[in-house]
Amino acid sequence: MAVRSRKWMILVATIWIQAFTGTNFDFSSYSSTLKSVLGISQLQLNYLSVASDMGKAFGWCSGVFLMYFPLWVVMFMAAFFGFFGYALQWLVIKQVISLPYFLVFLLCLIAGCSITWFNTVCFVLCIRNFPSNRALALSLTISFNGVSAALYTLIANAINPKDDTLYLFLNALVPLLASCLALIPIIRQRPLQLSTYTINQDPFIFIVLNVLAVITGLYLLLLNSLSSETLRARTLLLGALILLFRPLCLPGIVCDRNWGFRTNSSLVDLSDPELHTELIEKDQSNSLNIEPFSAINKEGLFEKVMEKGRLTMLGEEHPARLLVCRWDFWLYYVAYFCGGTIGLIYSNNLGQITQSLGYNSKISAVVTLYSSFSFFGRLFSAAPDFLLGKVNFARTGWLAVALVPTPIAFFLLAVSGSEVVLHASTAMIGLSSGFVFSAAVSITSELFGPNSAGINHNILITNIPIGSLLYGLLAALVYDSNVTSSVDKNVLQEAIVCMGRDCYMQTFICWGCISLLGLISSFLLFLRTRPAYDDHETNRN
C-alpha cells in the first residue's frame, strides 16, 4: 500500500515540475521589453527565440546523463541551466549588466536546454512508475506544462502587474523551487511492484485526476483576467496553488480505503509491450480481413505510395538508422513540423502580434489564453486511452483531427484583425498544438517502439528549432519590411515597432498554407497506419 501511494506522490511531483517549468511559453510576455532594452530588430529578436528552441536539439544529452547519474541529479542540472540562463537575462533587461547580443543568444540557448531536460526527467518518471498506463500518465503530466504561462502571469501580477521583467526573474527561480519540492518523492522512489489490483484501479484514479486538471484549467482560464490588481492576483494565486496541491489527497484516500470500486479494464492496454515479453505476430488470415487496401487495384500511384514501407504492427522497435528510412516517420515529422511546431512559433510571436494590432494592454491575457487552451489540448490527448475498447480509432487519426483548427485559425487572422478573432484563433491554435505536443510521445512509442521512444522522440523534435528558425525568419522579414512605411512606424525607445494588420497578414497566409500541408501529411499517416492499429485492436481483444 505504501509503494502504491508513493508512485502517486511521484506523479503529483511530476505535475508540479511540468506546471512550473514551461518557461518558454511566457516569452511573449517580456519579448517586447527585451527587444526595446537591447535595441534590436524583429529579426534579431526572432533569433533569440530560435536559440531557446535550439536547446531542444540537445535533449538527447539528458538521456545520456541519466545512464550515469540519478534522476534527481539530472533534474537539478536542468534547474541550474535555467537559473543561469534566465537570471543573467534578467540582469540584462534590468540594465544591471550589459552583454553583447551573442552572449544573450547563448543564454537563451542554455535556458532552452533546461526545459528539455526537465521534460526528459518527467517522461522517465512516468514510464518507470506507470508501465501499463504510461500514455495516461504522460498526457496528464505533460498537460500541466501548458498552464505555466498562466501561473507565471498570476505570480507576476501578485508581485507587480506593471513590471514585465519579472517573468525572467521567475523563470530563473521558480523551476529551482519546484525541483526542491519534488526532490523528496523522487529520492524515495522504489522499484515498482505490479499487481492486478493496482492495474485495475489506476484508470479510475486517472479519471479523477483529469477531472481535477480540467477544474484547474478552467480556474486559470476564466479567472486569470481578473488578476490585474495585486491583492486580487494574490488571492487567485493562492487558489491555484491549492488546486495544484489538491491531488495529494486523492491517491492517499483511494489507496488507503478499499472502496471495492471496479473500473473498466478496457482502460488498461493488456497488450502493452511493457506487460508482455513479446509482441503478438500478425495472423495472415486476419491481416487479409482488415487490410483496407488489399481489395484495391494497386497499380495506381497513390495505392503504391500508401503500401510502400508501411508499418505492419505497432510496438516494433526502430533504432535511429531504421527510423529515418521509414516513410511513416517522415510523414509524422512533416505533420509535427507543419502542425504543432508552427503553433509554438505563433506563441513566441504573440507579444508582437498583439501589439501590432493595437492591443498592447492585452498581451498577458492573450498569452494566458494560449497557455490555457494548450493545457486543454494536452489533456484531450488522453481521449484515445479513455475510449480504448469503446471507440476503435487510431491515435494517428486523432492527430489528424487535432490539426484541423490550425489552418482555419491562421486564415481567420489573415482576414480580420479584431480582438474577437485574435482570441478565438489563439485558442484554436493553442488547443491544436497542445494536443500534438502531448500525443507525440505516445505516438512515437506506438509506431516505433517503447524502448527506443526516448531517442526517437528527440530525433522527432529536432523539427522545433528548424521550424523556429524558418517560420520565425519569415515572420520577422515580413514584420521588418512593413516598418519601412512611415504610416505604420512607431518608435518605442530604441526599437522600431510595426503597427497595423499588414505586419503579420502575409505571415498568417503563409503559415495557414504550411499548416494545411501538415494536415494532409497527418491524414496520409493515418491512412498508412490504420491497418496496424486495427490489427493491434483485433489481437488485443
From TrEMBL:
<feature type="transmembrane region" description="Helical">
    <location>
        <begin position="166"/>
        <end position="184"/>
    </location>
</feature>
<dbReference type="InterPro" id="IPR056555">
    <property type="entry name" value="NFD4_C"/>
</dbReference>
<dbReference type="Pfam" id="PF23262">
    <property type="entry name" value="NFD4_C"/>
</dbReference>
<feature type="transmembrane region" description="Helical">
    <location>
        <begin position="235"/>
        <end position="254"/>
    </location>
</feature>
<keyword id="KW-1133">Transmembrane helix</keyword>
<feature type="transmembrane region" description="Helical">
    <location>
        <begin position="204"/>
        <end position="223"/>
    </location>
</feature>
<dbReference type="Pfam" id="PF06813">
    <property type="entry name" value="Nodulin-like"/>
</dbReference>
<feature type="domain" description="Nodulin-like">
    <location>
        <begin position="7"/>
        <end position="251"/>
    </location>
</feature>
<keyword id="KW-0732">Signal</keyword>
<feature type="transmembrane region" description="Helical">
    <location>
        <begin position="359"/>
        <end position="377"/>
    </location>
</feature>
<feature type="transmembrane region" description="Helical">
    <location>
        <begin position="329"/>
        <end position="347"/>
    </location>
</feature>
<dbReference type="GO" id="GO:0016020">
    <property type="term" value="C:membrane"/>
</dbReference>
<keyword id="KW-0812">Transmembrane</keyword>
<feature type="transmembrane region" description="Helical">
    <location>
        <begin position="63"/>
        <end position="88"/>
    </location>
</feature>
<feature type="transmembrane region" description="Helical">
    <location>
        <begin position="508"/>
        <end position="527"/>
    </location>
</feature>
<protein>
    <submittedName>
        <fullName>Protein NUCLEAR FUSION DEFECTIVE 4</fullName>
    </submittedName>
</protein>
<dbReference type="InterPro" id="IPR036259">
    <property type="entry name" value="MFS_trans_sf"/>
</dbReference>
<feature type="transmembrane region" description="Helical">
    <location>
        <begin position="397"/>
        <end position="415"/>
    </location>
</feature>
<feature type="transmembrane region" description="Helical">
    <location>
        <begin position="100"/>
        <end position="130"/>
    </location>
</feature>
<dbReference type="InterPro" id="IPR010658">
    <property type="entry name" value="Nodulin-like"/>
</dbReference>
<feature type="signal peptide">
    <location>
        <begin position="1"/>
        <end position="21"/>
    </location>
</feature>
<keyword id="KW-0472">Membrane</keyword>
<feature type="transmembrane region" description="Helical">
    <location>
        <begin position="427"/>
        <end position="448"/>
    </location>
</feature>
<feature type="domain" description="NFD4 C-terminal">
    <location>
        <begin position="316"/>
        <end position="531"/>
    </location>
</feature>
<feature type="transmembrane region" description="Helical">
    <location>
        <begin position="136"/>
        <end position="159"/>
    </location>
</feature>
<feature type="transmembrane region" description="Helical">
    <location>
        <begin position="460"/>
        <end position="479"/>
    </location>
</feature>
